[in-house]
Amino acid sequence: MNTTFKSPLSGIIPPLVTPLLGNDTLDVASLENLIEHLIAGGIHGLFILGTTGEEQSLSYRLRKEMIKETCRINAGRLPVLVCVTDTSIVESVNLAKVAADCGASAVVSAAPYYFATGQPELAEFYEDMLRTSSINYVIVHLFKRIIYQFHSALCSITSITVFLINHIKKNCFSCFSFPV
């Protein structure tokens, strides 16, 4: 695990665009120029595949390449946060493993966004995610629906295991939301 991640998160951690040469071809030279430019400008971390919105339109192969190249170019200089939000728990877990293997500092995860989840399913989603990797997790709530479901799930559903609550408390350095 990358040790450059500090809790709580602070400073400027911009979401990076994914530079492309074609529909499924990463522009590695432009990515390197972008990262070097941002580091020279004094940022405090890199956030990839996140809130710029393009992640969901990229192939899993391209997402994995973006993770690998960003971590290689960064070379441990700054924390790298990798968004692994997806409608597939399997693919989210696979991306988290790639991020951990490449030296990313943390993964960022929002709850599944396409299908409305019930409280037990939301708890199971996070439990499955947290159980599968030793990398740090940042849990993000993107929609009011998810904020309320996750909060009330933690407060009122007895099916949530002690493992989940303790694991989130111990391993998630930040939980934040974007206003709707």
The percent range for helix content is 40-55%
Backbone CA Rg: 16 Å
Name the quaternary structure: single chain
Find the structural class using helix and strand composition: alpha/beta
Number of helices: 6
Strand content: 15-25%
Order of helices and strands: EEHEHEHEHEHHE
Spatial order of the strands forming the largest sheet = 3-4-5-6-7
Arithmetic mean of pLDDT: 77
How many DSSP-defined strands? 7
List segments where confidence is low: pLDDT < 50 over at least 5 consecutive residues.
143-163, 172-180
How is this structure best described in words?
The protein is of the alpha/beta class and about 180 residues long. The protein contains 6 helices and 7 strands, in the order ββαβαβαβαβααβ. It has helices at about 30-40, 60-75, 90-100, 120-130, 145-155, 160-170, and strands at about 20, 25, 45-50, 80-85, 105-110, 135-140, 170-175. Helix 4 (about 120-130) links the parallel strand 5 and strand 6. The longest helix has 15 residues, at about 60-75. The radius of gyration is 16 Å and the shape is globular.
Topology, please?
Elements lengths: L19 E3 L2 E2 L1 H13 L5 E3 L11 H15 L5 E4 L5 H14 L3 E5 L8 H13 L4 E6 L2 H13 L5 H10 E6 L3
Parallel strand pairs: 3-4, 4-5, 5-6, 6-7
Antiparallel strand pairs: 1-2
Helix pairs in contact: 1-2, 2-3, 4-5, 4-6
